[in-house]
């Protein structure tokens, strides 16, 4: 790999092109507040080089970002805390940071071909190592546009106490839509309502100066993207559901199997749950944990459609809860794939309206920050989602070549799920592990047989 240094060409503040229509403050919810100790979200798209000159492109992106912010006024605001300790978003049009950068010695093939994700991607994002509590005095969002030799990387950084993945990608998609169409109308307007079950009088107390990160971030790590084709994932799903399949169904029908009705849909383990279970098994083995050691697989779930009545799909803010599934390392390693997959499946299925509301009540009884990290060395945290429309970010010259993230919120056992570029149910897993554990899953035949090395 060539040197990864990135040169900053310019910085400025972008303001919404219209004053905020939201005159009241937006109170952070019981799903927002725990994220104040998390880093800002950092996700971006790698694009081929457009025909437009870089100066014209930068001007277009600034103009489009200004228009987009007028539809998402919360992101142009700042956090404030009142005397009682409640935290709000003040939609005061303070603006977001825009950075133009250059690294023309880097090429798309050079940064996508290594097995491990190159460190240069960390330099494609602003507000590195910034906790979301810093939104009291720093912008709630920043955009960095980095010109490389044959492409453009657009890296978006957004305060995690203000958005979850659903809100983040709606903003990113809208920004791309406006840039491509040069229009001020948008197809998916966010909802800023705050009369939900997550709205609460509970107060989360902080030490003077704000919270600290709940993990060190200094440990040596390796990061890889593992690609799974639709066919590979269907094979995993078939294996996880084998005991539910009617007699006579063969592996040869794997691509058609789940349309036949031969599996009870209420009992069916999903493709993603099957993939997660395989990862859990392989990482647990690679860590060489004692059989009696408890291991946790933590999944973030979208609560918008789980509530009754449902929240709007484009509710702006965090509407997520964490589902921890706990089992002994020996049981995860020795039992078949179905055993682990069914544990995950049962927990996800059980997370209904009543469970969401119990989670809110539990947090209100003991307000606390989200314990991001892997303090016991036996945990996996799955974030993001292959359902997010990451490759819909077409700014006018084609779909992204790849999706990558920055350094934010990464520790041993942090996994992020992205859709595969080819779509159709393919998945990319961004896997962050201790070097010895990564080497272990690379030697794990059961895991690697499903990984596509040519993508």
From TrEMBL:
Pfam families: Transferase (PF02458). Keywords: Acyltransferase, Transferase. GO terms for molecular function: acyltransferase activity. It comes from the Eukaryota. SUPFAM superfamilies: CoA-dependent acyltransferases. Belongs to the plant acyltransferase family. PANTHER family: BAHD ACYLTRANSFERASE DCR, FAMILY REGULATORY PROTEIN, PUTATIVE (AFU_ORTHOLOGUE AFUA_3G14730)-RELATED. This is BAHD acyltransferase DCR. It comes from Rhododendron simsii.
